[in-house]
Amino acid sequence: MENARRKSTAPPLYVIRNERLTPPPHLLAGERVILFDGECVLCRRLVRFLIRADWRKKIHLATVQSPAGQDLLRWAGLPTDNFSTIAYIANGEVSTRSTAFFAALGELGWPWRALLILRFFPRVLRDGIYNAVARNRYRWFGRLPSGTLPPDDGQGRRYLDRGRG
Description:
- Residues 1-6 have low confidence and may be disordered.
- By secondary structure, this protein is of the alpha+beta class.
- 33% of the residues lie in helices and 13% in strands.
- Strand 2 (32-36), helix 2 (41-53) and strand 3 (59-63) form a beta-alpha-beta unit.
- It has helices spanning 2-5, 41-53, 67-76, 97-105, 123-141; strands spanning 15-17, 32-36, 59-63, 87-90, 93-96.
- Strands 1-5-4-2-3 form a five-stranded mixed β-sheet, with helices on both faces.
- It has one domain.
- It comes from Acerihabitans arboris.
- GO terms for molecular function: protein-disulfide reductase activity.
Protein backbone atom coordinates (compact mmCIF):
# COMPACT_ATOMS: atom_id res chain seq x y z
CA MET A 1 0.00 0.00 0.00
CA GLU A 2 2.85 2.37 0.76
CA ASN A 3 4.18 2.16 -2.82
CA ALA A 4 0.71 2.82 -4.24
CA ARG A 5 0.47 6.13 -2.38
CA ARG A 6 3.91 7.37 -3.37
CA LYS A 7 3.83 10.51 -5.52
CA SER A 8 5.43 10.45 -8.94
CA THR A 9 7.31 13.39 -10.42
CA ALA A 10 6.38 12.48 -14.02
CA PRO A 11 3.33 14.08 -15.62
CA PRO A 12 0.18 11.93 -15.49
CA LEU A 13 0.21 11.34 -19.25
CA TYR A 14 3.45 9.38 -19.01
CA VAL A 15 2.96 7.59 -15.71
CA ILE A 16 -0.47 6.09 -15.26
CA ARG A 17 -1.47 5.47 -11.67
CA ASN A 18 -3.86 2.69 -10.79
CA GLU A 19 -6.19 4.32 -8.30
CA ARG A 20 -7.91 0.99 -7.57
CA LEU A 21 -4.97 0.13 -5.32
CA THR A 22 -5.07 -3.46 -6.52
CA PRO A 23 -1.78 -5.15 -7.25
CA PRO A 24 -1.06 -5.89 -10.89
CA PRO A 25 -2.03 -9.41 -11.94
CA HIS A 26 0.72 -11.99 -12.48
CA LEU A 27 3.26 -9.97 -10.44
CA LEU A 28 4.39 -10.38 -6.86
CA ALA A 29 5.19 -7.36 -4.70
CA GLY A 30 8.32 -5.64 -5.94
CA GLU A 31 8.35 -7.36 -9.34
CA ARG A 32 8.43 -5.37 -12.56
CA VAL A 33 7.52 -6.19 -16.14
CA ILE A 34 7.95 -4.81 -19.63
CA LEU A 35 5.05 -5.30 -22.02
CA PHE A 36 6.10 -5.33 -25.67
CA ASP A 37 4.66 -6.08 -29.10
CA GLY A 38 5.45 -9.73 -29.78
CA GLU A 39 5.02 -9.25 -33.54
CA CYS A 40 7.50 -6.36 -33.83
CA VAL A 41 11.02 -7.27 -35.03
CA LEU A 42 12.51 -4.15 -33.41
CA CYS A 43 10.81 -4.98 -30.10
CA ARG A 44 12.16 -8.53 -30.34
CA ARG A 45 15.71 -7.17 -30.76
CA LEU A 46 15.28 -4.85 -27.78
CA VAL A 47 14.01 -7.74 -25.65
CA ARG A 48 17.00 -9.89 -26.68
CA PHE A 49 19.25 -7.03 -25.57
CA LEU A 50 17.34 -6.71 -22.30
CA ILE A 51 17.64 -10.43 -21.57
CA ARG A 52 21.43 -10.22 -21.96
CA ALA A 53 21.87 -6.88 -20.17
CA ASP A 54 19.60 -7.66 -17.20
CA TRP A 55 21.90 -10.31 -15.78
CA ARG A 56 20.29 -9.94 -12.34
CA LYS A 57 16.94 -10.91 -13.92
CA LYS A 58 15.05 -8.07 -12.27
CA ILE A 59 12.63 -7.42 -15.13
CA HIS A 60 9.94 -9.85 -16.24
CA LEU A 61 8.66 -9.85 -19.81
CA ALA A 62 5.26 -10.26 -21.46
CA THR A 63 4.01 -9.69 -24.98
CA VAL A 64 0.92 -7.52 -25.31
CA GLN A 65 -0.68 -10.37 -27.27
CA SER A 66 -0.27 -12.92 -24.45
CA PRO A 67 -2.99 -13.62 -21.85
CA ALA A 68 -0.78 -12.17 -19.09
CA GLY A 69 -0.02 -9.10 -21.22
CA GLN A 70 -3.72 -8.56 -21.93
CA ASP A 71 -4.54 -8.86 -18.21
CA LEU A 72 -1.86 -6.29 -17.34
CA LEU A 73 -3.04 -3.90 -20.06
CA ARG A 74 -6.61 -4.08 -18.75
CA TRP A 75 -5.37 -3.57 -15.18
CA ALA A 76 -3.43 -0.48 -16.29
CA GLY A 77 -6.33 0.95 -18.29
CA LEU A 78 -4.37 0.75 -21.56
CA PRO A 79 -5.84 -0.40 -24.89
CA THR A 80 -5.69 -4.16 -25.43
CA ASP A 81 -5.69 -3.89 -29.22
CA ASN A 82 -3.60 -1.69 -31.51
CA PHE A 83 -1.00 -1.19 -28.81
CA SER A 84 1.93 0.83 -30.20
CA THR A 85 4.20 1.45 -27.24
CA ILE A 86 6.11 -0.44 -24.61
CA ALA A 87 4.82 -0.31 -21.07
CA TYR A 88 6.80 -0.76 -17.88
CA ILE A 89 4.94 -1.70 -14.69
CA ALA A 90 6.68 -1.34 -11.34
CA ASN A 91 5.44 -0.43 -7.86
CA GLY A 92 1.84 0.04 -8.99
CA GLU A 93 2.75 2.56 -11.70
CA VAL A 94 2.70 2.18 -15.45
CA SER A 95 5.18 4.06 -17.63
CA THR A 96 4.90 4.24 -21.41
CA ARG A 97 6.95 5.43 -24.39
CA SER A 98 10.43 6.78 -23.66
CA THR A 99 9.66 7.00 -19.94
CA ALA A 100 9.19 3.21 -19.89
CA PHE A 101 12.43 2.72 -21.80
CA PHE A 102 14.39 4.82 -19.31
CA ALA A 103 12.72 3.15 -16.32
CA ALA A 104 13.88 -0.23 -17.64
CA LEU A 105 17.39 1.13 -18.30
CA GLY A 106 17.52 2.24 -14.68
CA GLU A 107 17.24 -1.41 -13.61
CA LEU A 108 20.26 -2.49 -15.66
CA GLY A 109 23.86 -2.36 -14.51
CA TRP A 110 26.74 -0.44 -15.98
CA PRO A 111 27.50 0.51 -18.72
CA TRP A 112 23.83 0.57 -19.75
CA ARG A 113 22.81 2.89 -16.93
CA ALA A 114 25.01 5.55 -18.49
CA LEU A 115 22.37 5.88 -21.23
CA LEU A 116 20.07 7.44 -18.63
CA ILE A 117 21.75 10.75 -19.42
CA LEU A 118 19.51 10.82 -22.52
CA ARG A 119 16.41 11.23 -20.38
CA PHE A 120 17.41 14.85 -19.81
CA PHE A 121 16.39 15.64 -23.38
CA PRO A 122 12.94 17.23 -23.38
CA ARG A 123 10.19 14.61 -23.15
CA VAL A 124 8.47 16.12 -26.19
CA LEU A 125 11.59 15.42 -28.27
CA ARG A 126 12.14 11.94 -26.79
CA ASP A 127 8.54 10.88 -27.30
CA GLY A 128 8.39 12.50 -30.74
CA ILE A 129 11.26 10.29 -31.87
CA TYR A 130 9.75 7.28 -30.06
CA ASN A 131 6.34 7.82 -31.72
CA ALA A 132 7.89 8.19 -35.19
CA VAL A 133 9.74 4.90 -34.80
CA ALA A 134 6.64 3.19 -33.31
CA ARG A 135 4.47 4.34 -36.24
CA ASN A 136 6.94 2.98 -38.80
CA ARG A 137 8.36 -0.03 -36.95
CA TYR A 138 6.70 -2.68 -39.13
CA ARG A 139 7.70 -0.93 -42.35
CA TRP A 140 11.30 -0.30 -41.28
CA PHE A 141 12.05 -3.49 -39.33
CA GLY A 142 9.39 -6.01 -40.38
CA ARG A 143 6.60 -7.91 -38.70
CA LEU A 144 6.68 -11.43 -37.32
CA PRO A 145 3.80 -13.82 -37.93
CA SER A 146 1.15 -13.87 -35.23
CA GLY A 147 1.92 -16.51 -32.61
CA THR A 148 5.72 -16.32 -33.02
CA LEU A 149 7.39 -17.11 -29.72
CA PRO A 150 9.40 -14.25 -28.20
CA PRO A 151 13.19 -14.48 -27.78
CA ASP A 152 14.38 -17.31 -25.57
CA ASP A 153 15.48 -16.22 -22.12
CA GLY A 154 17.51 -19.38 -21.60
CA GLN A 155 15.59 -20.59 -18.56
CA GLY A 156 11.92 -19.91 -19.25
CA ARG A 157 11.47 -17.84 -16.10
CA ARG A 158 11.56 -14.27 -17.42
CA TYR A 159 8.21 -14.44 -19.23
CA LEU A 160 5.08 -14.22 -17.12
CA ASP A 161 3.39 -16.82 -19.31
CA ARG A 162 6.50 -18.68 -20.50
CA GLY A 163 6.42 -16.68 -23.73
CA ARG A 164 3.17 -18.12 -25.03
CA GLY A 165 0.77 -15.76 -26.61
